[in-house]
Amino acid sequence: MSTWNHNGKGDPGSRSARRNNGRQTDPMGVNRTGRSDRFDARGWRRIGEKLFVWACLAAVFIPLLMLACLLGDVIIDGIGRLSWGFLTSPPSRRAGSAGILTAMVGSLYLVGLTAALALPLGVGAAIYLEEYGRRGRLSSFIETNISNLAGVPSVIYGLLGLGIFVRALGMGRSLAAGACTLALLVLPIVIMASREALRTVPYALREASYALGVTRWRTIRSVVLPMALPGILTGAILSISRAMGETAPLIVVGALAYISFLPRGLDSPYSALPIQIFNWVSRPQQEFLDNAAAGIVVLMAVLLALNAVAILLRNRYQRRLD
Amino acid sequence: MTELAPQLLSVPSPSATPVEDRKASNGATLPSARIERPARREQMEESPKLTAEELSAWFGAKQVLQRVSLAIPANRVTAIIGPSGCGKSTLLRCFNRMHETVTGARATGKVRLDGQDIYARGVDPVLIRRQIGMVFQKPNPFPSMSIRDNVLSGLRLTGLLKRELAEGIMERALIQAALWEEVQDRLSEPGISLSGGQQQRLCIARALAVEPEVLLMDEPCSALDPIATARIEDLMHSLSDRYTIVIVTHNMQQAARVSDQTAFLLMGELVEFGATDQLFTSPHDVRTEDYITGKFG
Questions:
Q1: Predicted-assembly ipTM surpassing the 0.90 threshold
Q2: In this complex, which of A202, A204, A215 lies closest to B126 when CB atoms are compared?
Q3: Is the pLDDT of residue B68 over 70?
Q4: Is the dihedral of CA A107, A112, A117, A121 positive or negative?
Q5: Is residue B187 in a domain?
Q6: For residue B251, what is the domain's CATH number?
Q7: For chain A, which has fewer Cβ within 10 Å, the N-terminal or C-terminal residue?
Q8: Domain residues for B252?
Q9: Is B39 inside a domain boundary?
Q10: Rg (CA), chain A
Q11: DSSP-based helix, strand, coil % in chain A, nearest 5
Q12: How many domains, in total, are found in chain B?
């Protein structure tokens, strides 16, 4: 039935024969001095190996060290300001009594709304692309564009949001406009993570379901999605933590740096943690810089907690698949 | 689905004394004890259960089935044999319209179930698949479901499950699949906690629970050890008095052991189709002879 491929490529016998001839060794690998060098442990190959290992180790530790320095510095500066009062006070002109309450609540509202907008859209798009869309030129065009969108600088999304949501749709400098902008920003991430998660569900399970006379939509809902859910959630959380840390687009669409009341609705003006930090950092007084450091510690804590949840979910997911 | 329970209870066995024997010994038989197979049932002159007429199938531009026509009798085991890539799995998957679920796959021609063309316009493939069940090469129970839920998954996901009938349906499907004895105390454990052979019988139970008329099996034993294989083969015998079974196998001994009819496929073409005894002892076509005597494949 099949013809066997006997040309040089992939045939180790002929290649090693050529190499031996070049080196003038006999077939056992013994050279002219009579000493076998086939298994010699010395030489450049070994030194190169060691250098490579050290270089890789350095590549691990240099960034970790930088991160540790940064965190340490911020914590030393900010730890003195961290208190219950700091978390529960609105911003103030006096650094000593200023807090992050409005910024934090604004961030939570913003992130919640962003998730509510981006998750259904992103997961829906991923389901269409993975489960229903045909493989073809259009789908690879869409795929390339989604990965490109994920790499677009966030300030561009801010300008887009300013043009569409703030101006054209007349939302103004509202919570809704900010959330819509952030949702656009994280949408590519949600779509890509969800597609990845859907792709890990074995095709055999879809077949098993189809063969029982189950419709496609019910198969997706009851067989595919439950298995992909932890992966989708992981992507969702990562994208939410991205939205939480974004500053540039919010500045463009008009988040406020100083606001003394909590958001009261979708059309309410708002602030966010990164905006508040940005504002404090740009002040000359040391007390405000300390406030910024404390704010950064809070933001980092929230982000790390979100990422930890993502990692836990992924681990649980992998264990279930094994 | 209201008459589902009585259907399950009354066992219509048209001519099945040998099958009763098999059933009695079912489960305890060792592979060596099964060399002597029961006498074949008399060929009944009745209309075939499943017929293919001029069936051709493609993956993209590649044609994998060339105008195959054959008639599969009811309540028999029909084997499809042939070398790898000859299109035997594709033929099987055309019988319940699973072929077209793969992107780029299409088929032309007719497949009739009880005379009705399942490729006709307006036929819902989803409903066809409830009549013609399928068991795959690799056991594929739903990993997130318990043994009980796996068996009932077909009815549950199609919305046909009546809660008061669930326990009975599950038990009967597991008994039919010769798995009940082994799992009755652990029905809530996950389906994937079972051994490979048990998982495959769980998949058979899952397929039987939706009460199909035809059961398609795509190399159901190729991932199993000989003892698990023997149990599945016994099962095919006992199931064939109620279901029409079509099995694809690359194992000619298996085809000879389990089937009443055998079809030999070569490069998408049906070379020979006839009674298993005749096909294996005195094939009409020289290609069949070459294949079964091991000259190629």
A1: no
A2: A215
A3: yes
A4: positive
A5: yes
A6: 3.40.50.300
A7: C
A8: 47-292
A9: no
A10: 28
A11: 70, 0, 30
A12: 1
